[in-house]
């Protein structure tokens, strides 16, 4: 007699978000009105049946532009109740949880706002305590903004590097494991990396936010049924601002370790210019995206994803704002506290990164690679952007 594993059978049952995403995709695959809207619909038409991994792939291709919701003749109050962005958002959140490492902390995604607040407060307190223990006088002293003066008097260099490196490496490992798990789920093998065309096309789409531009440049339904490119511009400001800040940190590390030039750096030095431009970009982008999130209509969105979205934006805004504040007060007596607060929120970001909406970036890029690999394999790649109907 065959073994009867009830627990396994129950855990293999599709979840409610998966069932709803499958129902919606089956209706869309029969309708196909939105075929030219984004990468989701061409990818959908390559499937006859929607396995769990295929749905995860489609969910992560969607960036919730809401175009198909406002165009859909079967959207609520129609009895079919088709709401693609909401269904795919719910499943996307579930895919973040399913692939998290270590698995028990997956529940953090749905409690991001609370976790980020507690973690930020704890990290700021921890850094302040560290500074007070090391050299309490330096915390409130006036600092000279000259190389070698300032930052390392407040927080010892070795402590700063040890904490930053440990948390960053942990986050990078957790993200890498999640990425490998997700790649397996959507059926993307390591071999795809040897096919440079899908990878390059995915990078191009991600770097240009191609599908946030709409099919003919008029943009997306950012907050309601009208079209605009506002979300794309704010997203660019935030993403490229983040990249510039990362480049500023990397440049500072090279200056320090390779050339022996310790921080702080002059106002027009490369790390400061990169960090200032990047910080301003992040502030503008984060505030703009928060405004769109809070002003947008609720119907096409998943309430469960709104919390993680807002929490990450607030954290990124806090990193950029405290970084710019630190630059402004670096030769005053409040520099020590400003440094501790900035390092505290950066530390909180590193810790929460693998369990926050940040994973959207790498999952979406991976889904785009599979999308282009599928199109290559089916010989159906269209080099020009698809166009919207109607
Ligand atoms: S979202 Fe609506 S209109 Fe668009 S393909 Fe699906 S069912 Fe058709
Ligand atoms: S919400 Fe936008 S990105 Fe998502 S499936 Fe609809 S048209 Fe595509």
Automatic annotation (TrEMBL):
Stretches that traverse the bilayer: 113-134, 154-180, 237-255, 267-292, 304-328, 334-355
Cited SUPFAM superfamilies: alpha-helical ferredoxin, Respiratory nitrate reductase 1 gamma chain
Protein origin, superkingdom: Bacteria
InterPro entries the UniProt entry points to: Citrate_utilization_prot_B, NarG-like_sf
Keywords assigned by UniProt, alphabetized: Membrane, Transmembrane, Transmembrane helix
Protein name: FumF
